[in-house]
């Protein structure tokens, strides 16, 4: 039963449907205009309407003024699986030369996942083509249905590029349906492009194929929506501009594209279970950051209390009766360690309208200040204190908020629009938790039109033929191989350069070490000590003589082997003891490196002493400075000189000592 608005200013709507269960009855009070005396006596009259309502206590849905369901390419009217009737294009919608500008076609293969209506036929456009719809003034949902596949032998969707305009405004530009469906979320064989447009008396929908290409569409749907439903703001008539203190405003000339519409924590809501605008709500499972980061509360069926600010048509009951929270009821402080997060891939370079739906579902949360949380959009605070009870006025009262956010291209052409909820604890709420019932994300107009790039591959006009596809793939393959070879060559050169640097470093170290291990000839020592003329002391294995190097440095020279004691000592030194001595000298040289980073830790020192001599590396730097001008021989002997002190005649002098 439906009573529409008449000249006296009242309207009565009710849904009537059959059901196997007993019919339920409800009262509906309508008020008559005070201006008309004949209806004043009826003021406050209750009319009983027999009806089975959509859901327990569900209010009356929105009744659209205009509803067009066009099955493009079909020859007769057909009902879809939901019972809606789709009509043909013929009549006043299209020009008389329809068949000259386009042709109808059927898919060569119909996937089992694809419903029959409106995807069993398509209208293929050979040149620019315009549908004309006579509509009432106001806002409309415009939905375009696409099933990208091959249609007969004359058309394949992967080579179809075209543009779509409404009254001269571009909705899709150089659009390819085949590329779009491959990246569609959630995954599907077909998809629907939904736009929100304004129209006056005639809505002109134009398809324009790109050069050497064709355009196509399977179905067209136009549905009226309430005035300013997506442009005036949320329940508070505001659109919060994220990152700014100034609210965002939309004019009546704006055009929007629906990107996501999700029933958070619930199942998919079909078009016939919407509030009259035939919107489809998907599950949020594919967009939640982690399935374990939130829970779906189980709430008994309750009656929703809609308000004037949040009418019953804003979202279906199924959206407000399901939700997702952070959980951890028995240990709520755990919720402070993470966020309730969703990621939504979007096109860069556009402003987006983000609509969030809330309703407190738990009976325990029944007052202000009990569950308060912060809303973040794109890592920015969108609303610091979100208290659903305080904002809506009650636990069963839905509320919705609108936000505007710009998504730039800093993170690529397809970045994520991130939504986070986190408990707000500054006011010590009873529950450290957050809740969300529904999300809608819509793309706003851009300066050059609302159309974004095709996913993954952006073509600048025209047909992507089989030959061009082969050439493209070949170029990509050749480029990839060339790039890989270049990278490998670069890595080889870098490795060789590092090896060469290491060898040079070792060579330099060995050269310096050879300088450090210099053996002096007897003639040189004799010259240094002036024929051993200055004795400064005697040790157990030889006499110590004083002398001067050529640079003036004073040294002490001990001459070994001039008595039997040295010969007896030398005979007692074994090969093993000689290796131990060499090993201790090398370890000592490592331990006195000038750079602390080159000195080994104690555990490494122990390993070096206990290991073999062959396993020890030569220190990279000399432990002391030796004048190169004095040394000419490049012997690789171990060092036989050291800094030391010799006592003679009770006087202490410091020398550079050399043992020979």
TrEMBL record:
Residues 651-660 have a biased composition (Polar residues). Residues 641-660 are annotated as: Disordered. InterPro entries: ANXUR1/2-like, Kinase-like_dom_sf, Malectin-like_Carb-bd_dom, Protein_kinase_ATP_BS. ATP binds at residue 558. Gene3D superfamilies: Galactose-binding lectin (2.60.120.430), Phosphorylase Kinase, domain 1 (3.30.200.20). Pfam families: Malectin_like. This is Malectin-like domain-containing protein. It comes from Brassica napus.
